[in-house]
Design goal:
mainly alpha, three-stranded antiparallel beta sheet, globular
Length: about 180
């Protein structure tokens, strides 16, 4: 993504009005949110968040692959966890999670301990080295995003700042049981 909305085209950048013409981004409103079908706002938000996340991930050049990184975050937030719980939270099969954990263990990023409630089970926790890697990745990604934010005009920065509570609210799952 080079510079912004011009890359995506007017129908993504501002949406389409009923007559087929384009409309400004600020005209996509809560009124567009009725029903279960995707809305212009949902489509645009998904596209921009996905592309921004991918761009930051690519620019970050992390040494830890995405699934391993996501697993570290999940262990940090919800650990200690069993392999089956991690697989469910990461939406992968147990064999896939086993391979991920083997790689993380070989790098010293996680610690495996016997489950005190079931000696056959193993609990996964984040190692000090794993916590350090997460901190480095977060700091690097924040620096990359800060560089992009500095390119924006003050009005856009203010709009993003004002939108943060709403964006953070999107992280709560549909059951209201917490962040997804």
């Amino acid at each position: 993504m080079r510079g912004g909305a011009d890359v995506a085209g007017p129908e993504v950048a501002g949406g389409m009005d009923e007559s087929g013409g384009t409309r400004a981004a600020h005209e996509v409103s809560a009124g567009d949110l009725s029903g279960e079908s995707p809305t212009p706002l949902a489509a645009r938000l998904g596209l921009v968040v996905g592309r921004l996340n991918r761009r930051i991930r690519i620019d970050g050049r992390e040494s830890v692959p995405p699934l391993q990184l996501s697993t570290l975050v999940t262990v940090e937030q919800h650990g200690p966890l069993r392999l089956s719980d991690l697989a469910r939270r990461e939406a992968v099969t147990a064999p896939t999670m086993s391979r991920v954990l083997t790689a993380l263990d070989e790098q010293g990023l996680v610690v495996r301990t016997v489950d005190p409630d079931d000696a056959r089970g193993v609990l996964i926790t984040l190692s000090d080295k794993g916590a350090g890697v997460l901190s480095e990745v977060r700091n690097h990604r924040a620096a990359l995003l800060a560089r992009r934010l500095r390119r924006l005009d003050p009005a856009h920065v203010a709009a993003l700042t004002a939108a943060l509570p709403a964006l953070e609210a999107l992280l709560v799952d549909d059951t209201g049981s917490g962040a997804v």
